[in-house]
UniProtKB/TrEMBL annotation:
It comes from Actinomadura litoris. Pfam families: AAA_25 (PF13481), ChlI (PF13541), Zn_ribbon_LapB (PF18073). The gene is radA. Residues 118-138 are annotated as: Disordered. The keyword DNA damage applies. This is DNA repair protein RadA. Residues 68-237 form the RecA family profile domain. Keywords: ATP-binding, DNA damage, DNA repair, DNA-binding, Hydrolase, Metal-binding, Nucleotide-binding, Stress response, Zinc, Zinc-finger.
């Protein structure tokens, strides 16, 4: 008699390559990556689905009413900038960030503003008809906390001034209870803090697992679409900075936001990595203090060190976060090493990009650092990922190596190639305008940066020296020329 064969059920899956196994292992058997094998959602065989009744007949796209999907300001201008104008009824947002970064404080502030009908400048909140004096009463907001007790959230609300009559608070960890509160309160905004703490007895697994998160998210998204409720989900992150749970969660929601910042600093930044209703290249800056969180419409000064005398190893650059130019300072320290392998430490910059710039300096400019420790960082906790920082990084490292300082009124921006050439980066004129507004007088940029949109160059009195927004702009072809003109600038 032949033995009956049973197929092993794949209970774990690699999040990188999709390799499946019946038991947990620390290392993927396909891509050999450590720590990527996680619990997989239970799979069911595909079934044949026949045509059934529709919820609403299909209409020509031009006849679809978009008034219900109009954005509504949250009251925080910096958050509205990232969202593309505000929140959309029926949208589901996922906010992720490290523990203690201020996610709950931010959402409590948003919930309080939404419950009072507050809105930012430019909104139409103040143009409501006087015939509906109680229109604000319909703006109920439900804040569901699964990580803290209601009393703990109330203490934070007292501290930040988020006590309103239409902000409802519930401490629940069961999905059915959360849906029951939605039925009772009928909110226009639902905040769930966090989705990893909410579970349901309808499926197996502990809260926070793949199956539980998938089921909870699917039900909350269904409620949001059916009732036109804006739902904000708080998500945990792993040690690598990725959102914990299945990658499917990021595909299901409409907006994915990351809340970033150094917990030892008051500066907080929020950026959108996915947004179905607006841009994904905007950055919002906030100041987190004991009395709440406020937006910073002009954060450039936070990323600079105020000094009267120049110091070797520092250079200022201008980076673009979306359409917003930010002036930031790059600092470098090159010191003699007593180790067989000198250290290369970075903070706020891409490690591989820093290593490439150091190699270009050593090979093209003969600035050897094979016996020196190199430390590179940014000021204010800002993270610079643009290639436009290369030129400022090279000038800072070179200045620290030869103990020569740059002018405190000089900025440098541009990409550095492996051949030592200086490459043009986008948005140079916008960057220079921001630097001129802050009082900088000199700029080192790659040649060809000051060209009009049609490709024609601006009129210059000197081919090596031109003026823009009151600044003296020095265009260079290579990193060697950049070092020459930067250290000889007044």
């Amino acid at each position: 008699m032949a033995k009956a064969k049973t197929a092993a059920k794949a209970a774990y899956r690699c999040s990188d390559c999709g390799w499946q196994t019946s038991k947990w292992v620390g290392r993927c058997g396909e891509c050999q990556t450590w720590g990527t094998v996680t619990e997989a959602a239970s799979a069911t065989p595909a079934r044949v689905v026949h045509a059934g009744p529709v919820s609403a007949p299909a209409r020509p796209i031009g006849q679809v009413d978009v008034r219900s999907a109009k954005t509504k300001p949250t009251g925080l201008d910096e958050l509205d900038r990232v969202l593309g104008g505000g929140i959309v009824p029926g949208a589901v947002l996922l906010l992720a960030g490290e523990p203690g970064i201020g996610k709950s404080t931010l959402l409590l502030e948003v919930a309080a503003l939404a419950s009072t009908g507050a809105s930012g400048p430019g909104s139409d909140a103040g143009s409501k008809s006087d015939s509906h004096p109680d229109s604000k009463e319909t703006s109920h907001v439900l804040y569901v906390t699964g990580e803290e007790s209601a009393e703990q959230v109330r203490l934070r609300a007292d501290r930040v001034g988020a006590i309103t009559d239409h902000l409802y608070l519930a401490a629940e960890t069961e999905l059915s209870a959360v849906l029951g509160h939605v039925e009772a309160v009928q909110p226009t905004l639902l905040v769930v803090d966090s989705i990893q703490t909410i579970g349901t007895s309808e499926v197996d697994g502990a809260p926070g697992g793949v199956t539980q998160i998938r089921e909870v998210a699917a039900n909350l998204i269904r409620v949001a679409k059916e009732r036109g409720i804006t739902v904000v989900l708080v998500g945990h992150v792993t040690k690598d900075g990725a959102i914990a749970g299945p990658r499917l969660l990021e595909h299901l929601v409409d907006v994915v936001l990351y809340f970033e910042g150094d917990r030892h600093s008051r500066l907080r930044m929020i950026r959108a990595v996915k947004n179905r209703y607006g841009p994904t290249d905007e950055l919002g800056c906030f100041d987190l203090s004991e009395v709440g969180i406020v937006g910073l419409p002009d954060p450039s000064g936070l990323f600079l060190t105020r000094r009267d005398e120049p110091v070797p190893g520092t250079c200022v650059t201008v980076t673009l976060e979306g359409r917003r130019p930010l002036v930031a300072e790059v600092q470098s320290l090159v010191a003699k090493s007593h180790l067989p392998s000198p250290r290369r430490a970075t903070s706020g910059l891409d490690t591989s990009r820093v290593a490439m710039v150091l190699a270009v300096l050593a090979q093209r400019c003969k600035i050897s650092m094979h016996e020196q420790d190199v430390y590179v960082s940014t000021v204010g906790g800002v993270r610079l990922t643009e290639t436009s920082v290369d030129l400022a990084l090279a000038l800072a490292v070179a200045g620290s190596t030869v103990e020569q300082s740059l002018s405190t009124t000089l900025i440098a921006l541009g990409e550095v190639g492996l051949a030592g050439e200086a490459r043009v980066v986008p948005g140079v004129q916008r960057r220079l305008a921001e630097a001129a507004r802050l009082g900088f007088k000199y700029a080192v940029v790659p040649r060809g940066s000051l060209e009009l949109a049609d490709g024609s160059p601006l009129k210059r009195a000197d081919p090596q020296l031109s003026s823009y927004e009151g600044m003296k702009v020095m265009e260079v072809d290579s990193i060697q020329q950049a070092l020459q003109v930067a250290f000889t600038a007044p």
